[in-house]
């Protein structure tokens, strides 16, 4: 399975800050926003990842992340010269995905919760075993703001309704999707919506009609934050700060995840931490590397 990380768009809801800086490069407490979705793909065991962004932002992403070799992964980059919808990422990434299945994550989504690795493993295994689509949902207080899942009495997904006036449930579909390889053809057949974009809801609807879409809803104890507004960006930063300070772990630390997943060795992780040794973040990576071969108590999973 390959991964696509969509970090495009204009970030207009975060103006004036994003007039000069791509939204996904803004800090969420102690690290760039893009570290959070990148960590999700890495936790799913995905090592070949395509970052899609604007021509103006791509040089900064390359400077930040490089080719991924330091993390034991392979990063490639592609341009989306203007916002054409989430589903356009599957069009742009067609050659990159090739004959593989694909996970798509949005660059402004933050996920965190104990057992999240198991959820990701289930989503990936389901698609690799039977194809189709697995959508990740989360209960929200204001479903009318999101794409909302309609669910029958047996818990099956029957529709995804975009920003409904009368929501059929309180489960929003998050910005994390797993698809079989045929999604490349599905996305290619999607027609632009009234706003001129290729809507991911139309892609998901195709799988719902076929009866091959599964909804995995994150339960209580999971956090899903969309960092697309000033208020939500602040909420996310405060959430990360509280969890990290209380539990002594870092959320979405790619160096730690690469080490835990076996992508890199403790020595490689230590060298990465030493590059930022003057910061708390760098010292944390060094400490994690030093402790890698020692028994440690169970802690809240860092994603």
Automatic annotation (TrEMBL):
It holds the Pfam family NTP_transferase. It comes from the Bacteria. One of its GO terms (molecular function) is glucose-1-phosphate thymidylyltransferase activity. Its EC number is 2.7.7.24. It catalyses: dTTP + alpha-D-glucose 1-phosphate + H(+) = dTDP-alpha-D-glucose + diphosphate. Residues 3-240 form the Nucleotidyl transferase domain. The keyword Transcription does not apply. InterPro entries: G1P_thy_trans_s (IPR005907), NTP_transferase_dom (IPR005835), Nucleotide-diphossugar_trans (IPR029044). Keywords: Magnesium, Metal-binding, Nucleotidyltransferase, Transferase. Coiled coil: none annotated. Its cofactor is Mg(2+). Belongs to the glucose-1-phosphate thymidylyltransferase family. NCBIfam families: rmlA (TIGR01207). Catalyzes the formation of dTDP-glucose, from dTTP and glucose 1-phosphate, as well as its pyrophosphorolysis. This is Glucose-1-phosphate thymidylyltransferase. The gene is rfbA.
């Amino acid at each position: 399975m390959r991964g696509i990380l969509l970090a495009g768009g204009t970030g207009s809801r975060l103006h004036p800050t994003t007039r000069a800086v791509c939204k996904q490069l803004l800090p969420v407490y102690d690290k760039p926003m893009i570290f959070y979705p990148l960590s999700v793909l890495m936790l799913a065991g995905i090592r070949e990842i395509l970052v899609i962004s604007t021509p103006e932002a791509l040089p900064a992403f390359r400077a930040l992340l490089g080719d991924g070799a330091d993390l034991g992964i392979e990063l490639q980059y592609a341009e989306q010269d203007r916002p054409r919808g989430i589903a356009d990422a599957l069009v742009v990434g067609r050659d990159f995905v090739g004959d593989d299945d694909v996970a798509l994550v949005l660059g402004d989504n933050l996920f965190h919760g104990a057992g999240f690795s198991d959820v990701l493993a289930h989503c990936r295994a389901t698609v690799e075993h039977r194809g189709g689509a697995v959508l990740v949902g989360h209960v929200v207080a204001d479903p009318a703001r999101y794409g909302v899942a309609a669910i029958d009495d047996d818990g099956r997904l029957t529709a995804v309704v975009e920003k409904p006036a009368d929501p059929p449930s309180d489960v929003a579909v998050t910005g994390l999707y797993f698809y079989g390889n045929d999604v490349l053809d599905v996305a290619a057949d999607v027609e632009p919506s009234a706003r001129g974009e290729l809507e991911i809801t139309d892609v998901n609807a195709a799988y719902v009609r076929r009866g091959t879409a599964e909804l995995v809803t994150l339960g209580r104890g999971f956090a899903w934050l969309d960092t697309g507004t000033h208020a939500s960006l602040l909420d996310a930063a405060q959430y990360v700060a509280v969890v990290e300070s209380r539990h002594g772990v870092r959320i979405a630390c790619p160096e730690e995840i690469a080490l835990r997943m076996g992508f890199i060795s403790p020595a490689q992780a230590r060298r990465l931490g030493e590059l930022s040794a003057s910061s708390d973040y760098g010292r944390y990576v060094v400490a994690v590397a030093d402790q890698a071969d020692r028994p440690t108590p169970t802690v809240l999973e860092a994603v």
